[in-house]
């Protein structure tokens, strides 16, 4: 990492722990800062704070006392999950105290290029694809995943060498806390309406996403989804060199034409050869192909890598086959749009959909067009009656209400026939029955494995 001296003997407040806060605190301590960590969780239930204390880092736990700001801090490094409406954060903003997120620190110490990926949907899949592509037939260095994908950016940047690339997934929350952050290549997969409870308005949400490119220059590349008119308009306001991708028209980048994928005029592969289904995954692959081409990955390596990529866990992930029935885990589909995208990748006449969970006060009328033609639907959780209404409106004749994901798998399998697909794509949050979408997806896989054991 770069040995910067910017933080020597500076008083810095790290607000909120979790993985990124712990990494930021340790890095700042190593860089000579006088670090105070403040976390809401009580000290006796806070192993992260206990660990930092043993390193000689000051910790304040059990709340976010505004009085901390009397201590003349030079900077706050804020956990992305803490909203700007938090009283301590509001007071810091009033005092014009700089507030950054940990990805800004990562940029400041990184010796190698950073590729930044954001968007409403597809960030994790696209980030993972890019990482795999950049490591295909690589002679020197490694493409390292970082950021919102689960690896603290500052920790990865500390370890990365100059021959590496950091492929960084970035949320809108993280991007609100950047100052000088400048990726060599940036990708925006798409922009839809999301996180309005945090941002307050769609305008502020889009502004946070668009901040990814704010420091980029003509020598940097900004990869944009040309299917979206909004991104076409925004492209007029950046200094970066635009490389578009599209599934609807030929563009000066990556595009889909008659089920074939091209980069500029070069044929890359058939879209049907992609290892993951769905029109949204074609978009993700196009974005990843642009980055791979900009980084000079051979076409044959791109095709081979994307053919064997079967998805990120819980994101339209192929998990196995039993007696001719294929199983896909899309537990990450916690909203209607994500489920619509998943459904677009399957032949509905042989599709059995598992859905339900906790809604956000919404109805499911928007989902009706995507449900039309589905062979059978299995509904669970608090939203099952609402989803039943949508299924009836879509003309689905086989509608089954069941207890949970596990029973849905069992019921769907018993009804299914050879060459059918059983898809978990809930269109809802998991919290009514499962602590998170990962555990819901794990329950789906476990139920499938139990069926497999019985069939053996």
UniProtKB/TrEMBL annotation:
Gene3D superfamilies reported for this sequence: Mur ligase, C-terminal domain, Mur-like, catalytic domain, NAD(P)-binding Rossmann-like Domain
Entry annotated with the keyword Nucleotide-binding: yes
Per the UniProt entry, what is one GO biological process? Answer: cell wall organization
Example of a GO MF term: UDP-N-acetylmuramoylalanine-D-glutamate ligase activity
Query: Mur ligase C-terminal domain location, by residue?
Result: 314-428
- Subcellular localization: Cytoplasm
The reaction(s) catalysed by this protein are: UDP-N-acetyl-alpha-D-muramoyl-L-alanine + D-glutamate + ATP = UDP-N-acetyl-alpha-D-muramoyl-L-alanyl-D-glutamate + ADP + phosphate + H(+)
Its top-level enzyme class, in one word, is: ligase
Which keywords appear in this protein's UniProt record, sorted alphabetically? ATP-binding, Cell cycle, Cell division, Cell shape, Cell wall biogenesis/degradation, Cytoplasm, Ligase, Nucleotide-binding, Peptidoglycan synthesis
Q: Which residues bind ATP?
A: 119-125
Which pathway does the protein contribute to? Cell wall biogenesis; peptidoglycan biosynthesis
Mur ligase central domain location is 117-292
InterPro entries noted in UniProt: Mur-like_cat_sf, Mur_ligase_C, Mur_ligase_C_dom_sf, Mur_ligase_cen, MurD
- May I have one GO cellular component term? cytoplasm
**E.C. designation(s):** 6.3.2.9
Protein family: Belongs to the MurCDEF family.
Q: What does this protein do?
A: Cell wall formation. Catalyzes the addition of glutamate to the nucleotide precursor UDP-N-acetylmuramoyl-L-alanine (UMA).
Query: What HAMAP family does this protein map onto?
Result: MurD (MF_00639)
Task: Return the protein name.
Answer: UDP-N-acetylmuramoylalanine--D-glutamate ligase
Organism per entry: Enterococcus termitis
């Amino acid at each position: 990492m770069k040995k910067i001296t910017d933080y020597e003997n500076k008083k810095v407040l790290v607000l909120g722990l979790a993985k990124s806060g712990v990494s930021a605190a340790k890095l700042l301590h190593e860089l000579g800062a006088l670090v105070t960590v403040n976390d809401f969780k009580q000290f006796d239930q806070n192993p992260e704070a206990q660990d930092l204390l043993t390193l000689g880092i000051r910790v304040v736990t059990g709340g976010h006392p505004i009085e901390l700001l009397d201590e003349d801090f030079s900077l706050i490094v804020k956990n992305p999950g803490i909203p700007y409406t938090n009283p301590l954060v509001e007071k810091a903003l009033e005092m014009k105290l700089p507030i950054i997120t940990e990805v800004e620190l990562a940029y400041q110490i990184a010796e190698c290029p950073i590729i930044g990926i954001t968007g409403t949907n597809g960030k994790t899949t696209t980030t993972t694809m890019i990482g795999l592509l950049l490591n295909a037939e690589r002679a020197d260095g490694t493409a390292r995943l970082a950021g919102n994908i689960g690896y603290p950016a500052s920790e990865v940047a500390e370890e990365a060498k100059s021959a590496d690339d950091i492929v960084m997934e970035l949320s809108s929350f993280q991007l609100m806390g950047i100052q000088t952050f400048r990726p060599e290549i940036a990708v925006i997969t798409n922009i839809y309406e999301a996180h309005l409870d945090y941002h307050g308005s769609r305008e502020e949400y889009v502004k946070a996403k668009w901040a990814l490119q704010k420091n980029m220059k003509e020598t940097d590349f900004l990869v944009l989804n040309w299917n979206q008119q909004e991104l076409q308009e925004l492209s007029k306001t950046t200094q970066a060199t635009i490389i578009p991708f599209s599934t609807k028209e030929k563009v000066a980048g990556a595009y889909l034409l008659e089920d074939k994928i091209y980069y500029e005029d070069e044929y890359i592969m058939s879209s049907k050869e992609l290892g993951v289904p769905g029109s949204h995954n074609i978009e993700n692959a196009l974005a990843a192909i642009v980055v791979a081409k900009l980084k000079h990955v051979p076409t044959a390596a791109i095709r081979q890598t994307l053919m064997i990529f079967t998805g990120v866990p819980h994101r339209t992930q192929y998990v196995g086959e039993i007696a001719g029935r294929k199983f896909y885990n899309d537990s990450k589909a916690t909203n209607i749009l994500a489920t619509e995208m998943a459904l677009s990748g399957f032949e509905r006449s042989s599709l059995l959909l598992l859905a339900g969970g906790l809604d956000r006060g919404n109805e499911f009328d928007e989902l009706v067009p995507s449900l039309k033609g589905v062979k059978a639907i299995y509904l669970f959780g608090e939203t099952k009656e609402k989803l039943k209404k949508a299924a009836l409106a879509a003309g689905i004749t086989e509608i089954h209400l069941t207890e949970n994901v596990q029973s849905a798998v069992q019921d769907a399998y018993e009804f299914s026939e050879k060459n059918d697909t059983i898809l978990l794509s809930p269109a809802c949050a998991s919290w009514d029955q499962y602590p998170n979408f990962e555990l819901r997806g794990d329950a789906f896989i476990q139920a499938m494995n139990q069926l497999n054991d019985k069939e053996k």
